[in-house]
TrEMBL record:
Compositionally biased region (Acidic residues): 446-462
Gene3D superfamilies: YycH protein, domain 2
TM annotation in the entry: 9-28
Residue ranges of domain Regulatory protein YycH in the record: 4-441
Chain positions covered by the region annotation Disordered: 440-462
Stated name of the protein: YycH protein
Alphabetical list of Pfam families matching this protein: YycH
Length: 462
């Protein structure tokens, strides 16, 4: 047999083997029943919802300015959300950016101011609007906006303002002037009268951020809600790369923990709260997006929006950044539960990596069990007056005064929400006891009230 015949024979054998192997692979069916079901990866299930920016970024005050007076649109009124819908659905054109234009710009026909609970990254703010062209602005963060009717152009304009950068920008909108006046400005008699703590300083400053407080006593509902637990298994599936590698163990304090050797979830307060940690080091130091955007996308990624959580704060802490979305019920923020400030979704970032995440592990019913009890609280003006009589407080450090709720969890399936006044002093919310405010409003000095109250100082920190 010559070499050519040998080569042909080898080639025929190889072709035959290839055909046999290909047919075997094509027709192979594994015996699925023999596999361990518990070892297979289960696809992620959304914990709650994914939400748009408009649903998690909202002002905590909407103030109507007209005829030298100011009125607050309550957050439980339809007008509050109708205005936000008008703003988000309108079209806008770029106008200009000033460093000297007055803010808010008062005109003869008035305007409406939106006061956000924290500064909003400009890219997130403009992502909520419809702009005709790509808009570039030197302002990086926005914490206020003012809609007004331009006296000359007879058109609704929007000022956006950064109190940190002391800059004002302007946009033209296609919001109907007539509808704007009729729906919001002309209804101001139905709203709550407010005044500014900064009116004296405003007379000598072109750009002033006002702290608005109510001038009338407030009637607020005490609420009760049913609560449903959120399964920790949903977070095991969402926050760990390989859920099958996650191990359970019990800590010395009796609380449960889950870890894959790197990431960890610790349960707190009898399993009603969780703390997630991911200490993996990120080599990337150049930040690709703002921490507020990163936190929003992280929570959206696992459908972590359960109740009504609103962007309320973000901060830089050395080489870390933190963002928080606070629970709101009946239009008001919930500042604490059983005396601890835990009613928020908090995400911490190092580099471009979310390294910590904490949140409640229960979901409140959409409808309260009762709203029969109403509580009368002092006016914001009386609250501020009582603070001014307390030597502890410096007026320039009073950042905000707000109505809010204290939550009490009587059992894992039932909570109550009791309204109080709170003051943001520096960077910390503190509850103000009504008895202290009432004593001052009746002409009693703070020292006299404290003598009658014993050791109670009238304040509770959160």
């Amino acid at each position: 047999m010559n070499k050519e015949h040998i080569k042909s024979a080898i080639l025929i054998i190889l072709i035959g083997m290839s055909v046999i192997l290909s047919w075997s692979l094509y027709t192979y069916q594994p015996d699925i029943a023999l596999l361990d079901v518990s070892s297979r990866y289960v696809s992620n299930e959304l914990i709650g919802e994914e939400r748009s920016l408009q649903e998690v970024i909202r002002p905590d005050q909407i103030v109507v300015h007209a005829d030298g007076e100011k009125a607050l649109i309550p957050r439980d009124r339809e007008d509050f959300y109708a205005l936000l819908e008008k703003v988000s659905q309108a079209n806008y054109e770029a106008d200009h950016v000033f460093m000297t234009e007055p803010y808010p710009l008062m005109t003869e026909r008035g305007g409406i101011e939106l006061v956000f609970p924290t500064s909003i990254p400009a890219e997130m703010f403009f992502a909520m609007l419809t702009l005709e062209d790509d808009y570039q602005t030197p302002i990086s963060e926005i914490d206020r906006a003012f809609l007004y009717i331009h006296d000359v152009h007879d058109q609704v304009y929007m000022q956006f303002y950064s109190s940190d950068e002391r800059r004002v920008g302007s946009l033209k909108s296609n919001i109907s002037v007539g509808e704007f006046e009729r729906l919001f400005i002309q209804n101001r008699d139905e709203y709550v009268t407010v005044r500014s703590l900064e009116e004296e300083r405003a007379q000598s400053s072109l750009m002033t951020e006002h702290v608005y407080v109510t001038t009338e006593p407030m009637m607020v509902d005490t609420l009760s809600y049913g609560a449903s637990p959120i399964s920790i298994d949903l977070f095991r599936q969402s926050l760990f790369t390989d859920p099958s590698a996650v191990k359970y163990y019990q800590q010395s304090d009796g609380e449960d923990s889950y870890t894959d050797g790197n990431r960890m979830i610790n349960l707190r307060h009898n399993g009603t709260f969780m703390e997630y940690g991911n200490p993996m080091f990120s080599e990337v130091q150049e930040l690709s997006k703002h921490v507020a955007q990163a936190g929003y996308e992280f929570i959206n990624g696992h459908g972590g929006w359960t109740d009504d959580y609103i962007l309320t704060n973000w901060m830089r802490l050395n080489n870390r950044e933190e963002v928080e979305f606070r629970l709101h019920m009946n239009g008001l923020p919930v500042f604490s539960i059983d005396g601890q400030d835990l009613m928020k979704l908090s995400a911490t970032r190092s580099g471009n990596q979310i390294v910590a995440y904490s949140r409640p592990l229960f979901d409140l019913d959409s409808v309260p069990l009762n709203t029969t009890q109403r509580v009368e609280l002092p006016s914001g003006e009386d609250v501020v007056r009582s603070l001014q009589q307390d030597d502890y407080y410096e007026r320039q450090r009073i950042a905000k005064v707000s109505l809010g709720y204290e939550m009490e969890m009587r059992n894992p399936t039932f909570v109550t929400l009791e309204p109080h006044w709170y003051v943001l002093y520096g960077n910390r919310w503190q509850r103000i006891e009504t008895s202290q405010v009432e004593a001052v409003s009746q002409g009693q000095t703070l020292d006299e009230e404290e003598e009658g109250a014993g050791d109670d100082d009238g304040l509770e920190s959160n």
